[in-house]
Design a protein that fits this description.
CATH topology of the domain at 3-141: Leucine-rich repeat, LRR (right-handed beta-alpha superhelix)
Shape: globular
Largest sheet: 24 strands, mixed
CATH architecture of the domain at 3-141: Alpha-Beta Horseshoe
Helix content: under 10%
Radius of gyration: 33 Å
CATH class of the domain at 3-141: Alpha Beta
Number of strands: 43
Structural class: mainly beta
Strand content: 15-25%
Length: about 650
């Protein structure tokens, strides 16, 4: 394939695949050349330049440059691509070989170079200024390395370059305004560096630009209005910078734009009401974590190709008046924490328009202060829905009985609302659920037995409701459970042994502030990975089982306000991770164990209101009177210090 064909190829194939495909075609062309090549090269300039490049590679674990010697013509060296006509080096492809070292200035002597790809290695140092001499360069990919320093101004001399990828390095300083002279540039990727300063207004001269990604830097100031002149622009990514001001209206008129990512900045102002009409091809619109205000444009309903709409964490005016029914491709809708709730009964009317969005996978509308009743239509959303987040509102009514229709749900988060009624038994149909959060509502009735069908569940929050009845033993089927919170309900009966058989519990088991009775089962010793155990404010009786000493990861133990008796278990001596122990308001007897003074990270110890006796130890935590409470015990002898 001749170079003229390769050059036309650059302009006709979609940009994101151009560079890799061009490398492949160049390689094919070079192979024909290499087969015909003689042993020694016709061009010593290229030969010596390549040897200089090899000399500055200090780590080559895959022995890529082992063929770079005089036993072969340099056109046959691995990673070297030569042109068919002049047998000059036109491509250098050393990507993803785990190479380390620096880039030799001699690379500037490879005057026929079209493509350089050193991507995904560990090259260090600066980009040599000599690279600016590569006037024939079409593509430069130095992404995912450890390069540093400033981006050389004289890269602007590479006037034929189409692709410039410098992502994931350590570049600093300002973006050179001179790069605005690269009128043939199609792709500019500078993601994940430490670049500062403003986006140069001269970038508006990059008339061929289709892809501009500058996210994850420290760029500041306004987006220059000249960016709105880039009529070929398809993808614009500016997230995670320090940009501010208003987004220029001219950008919303870039009709070719498919993705606009501007999240995690400080943008202000409102979105134009015509946005959905002027961006007919938009697929991804991501403006989260800014200070945008005004209303969400109704015209978004016309952006029929929209897949991701992320407006969360802004300051929009209350109300969502968008009809999402025409957005058949919508997969992610993020509206959380944006002040959209009015507290009115009609706040959630827009939910019914989402029923037609058959591709919807994630719906986040939490922390908005939405009022009204949770509509039954929420159970008719896409069966592909994986994450449903409606917590932190003022939503009332029942959880829809048919919530079990959402068979792909992974996360169901309804915490901190005003929901009433019982937890539907159909929740047991949601076999993919990993997180359920219903805490801080007014849910009543019993915990359904069907919850034991959720065998993939890792976190279950049902606390701070008015649930009653027994804890279902079927929870023992949830073998991957890391956290179980049933605190502050009206639960009664004994704690099922099956719950203490969940050795997966590692974060927290909180059953506090209920009316649970009976002894603490021996099976508590199965919780070897548990960090927090809170069964305080119940009606537990009997002794603290010695098997609790098997809970070697326990940091926080709260058993206060029960009717536990017997001595402090000697087996707890092995639990050296304790930071907080509260056993107050029980019927514990015997002496305070001296080993508690050897717990180095123990910060608080409350043994008050028991029947303990003997002398208080004086070491460790006992040296700090404010950290220990032993008051109101039968016959405590305080030595050297006064305890409260």
């Amino acid at each position: 394939m001749g170079l003229r064909i390769l050059q036309s190829f650059v302009c006709s194939v979609p940009m994101l695949w151009c560079l890799s495909m061009l490398l492949l075609l160049l390689y094919t062309a070079s192979q024909r050349t290499a087969l015909a090549a003689t042993r020694l090269g016709e061009n010593e300039t290229d030969h010596f330049a390549l040897l200089s490049i090899k000399a500055q590679i200090t780590h080559d674990p895959m022995l890529i440059t082992s063929s770079w010697n005089d036993s072969l013509h340099f056109c046959q060296w691995k990673g070297v691509l030569c042109g068919r006509r002049h047998r000059r080096v036109i491509g250098l492809n050393l990507q993803s070989y785990n190479l380390a070292g620096s880039i030799s200035p001699a690379i500037g002597n490879l005057s026929f170079l079209r493509i350089v790809s050193l991507m995904n290695n560990s090259f260090q140092g600066e980009i040599p200024h000599e690279m600016g001499r590569l006037f024939r360069l079409r593509g430069l990919d130095l992404g995912i390395n450890l390069l540093e320093g400033k981006i050389p101004v004289n890269l602007s001399h590479c006037s034929n370059v189409r692709f410039l990828d410098l992502r994931q390095n350590k570049f600093i300083g300002n973006l050179p305004k001179e790069l605005g002279a690269l009128s043939q540039l199609v792709l500019l990727n500078i993601v994940s560096n430490n670049l500062t300063g403003v986006i140069p207004a001269s970038f508006g001269n990059l008339s061929s630009l289709e892809f501009l990604s500058a996210r994850e830097n420290k760029l500041e100031g306004n987006i220059p209005g000249s960016i709105g002149s880039l009529k070929s622009l398809i993808i614009l990514r500016l997230s995670k910078n320090e940009l501010s001001g208003m987004i220029p209206l001219s950008i919303y008129n870039l009709s070719s734009l498919t993705s606009f990512w501007a999240s995690f900045n400080q943008f202000q102002g409102s979105l134009p009401q015509t946005l959905g009409l002027t961006l007919p091809k938009i697929r991804n619109l991501v403006f989260s974590k800014n200070q945008l205000s005004g209303s969400i444009p109704r015209s978004i309903a016309n952006a029929s190709r929209l897949e991701i709409l992320d407006l969360q964490h802004n300051k929009f005016s209350p109300g969502v008046a968008v009809d999402f029914g025409n957005l058949k491709n919508l997969s992610k809708l993020f509206l959380s924490t944006s002040g959209l709730g009015t507290g009115d009964v009609n706040d959630l009317n827009f939910i019914s328009t989402l029923v037609n969005c058959s591709e919807l996978v994630e719906l986040y509308i939490g922390n908005n202060g939405f009022g009204g009743v949770l509509p039954n239509s929420i159970a008719n959303l896409s069966t592909q829905l994986q994450h449903l987040i409606v917590g932190g509102n003022q939503i009332s009514g029942n959880i829809p009985a048919d919530i079990g229709n959402l068979v792909s749900l992974n996360t169901l988060h309804m915490i901190n609302n005003k929901l009433t009624g019982s937890i539907p038994a159909s929740i047991g149909k949601l076999h993919k659920l990993q997180l359920v959060a219903f805490s801080r509502n007014k849910l009543s009735g019993e915990i359904p037995l069907s919850i034991g069908n959720l065998t993939l569940l890792t976190k279950l929050w049902l606390g701070e409701n008015i649930l009653q009845g027994n804890i279902p033993s079927s929870l023992g089927n949830c073998k991957g459970l890391l956290l179980l919170n049933l605190r502050t309900n009206n639960l009664t009966g004994s704690i099922p042994r099956e719950v203490f058989g969940l050795s997966s519990l590692s974060i927290s088991l909180d059953l506090s502030q209920n009316s649970l009775s009976g002894p603490l089962p021996l099976e508590v010793g199965n919780l070897r990975n548990l960090g927090i155990l809170n069964i305080s404010h119940n009606k537990l009786s009997g002794e603290i089982p010695s098997s609790l000493g098997n809970c070697i990861s326990l940091q926080y133990l709260y058993l206060h306000n029960n009717s536990l008796g017997g001595a402090f278990p000697q087996s707890l001596e092995s639990l050296r991770a304790f930071e907080d122990i509260d056993l107050a308001h029980n019927n514990l007897s015997g002496v305070i164990p001296k080993f508690l003074g050897s717990f180095r990270v123990l910060r608080n110890l409350n043994l008050s209101f028991n029947d303990l006796e003997g002398e208080v130890p004086v070491h460790g935590v006992f040296k700090n009177a404010s950290a220990v409470s032993v008051s109101r015990n039968t016959c405590i002898q305080v030595a050297k210090m006064s305890f409260g």
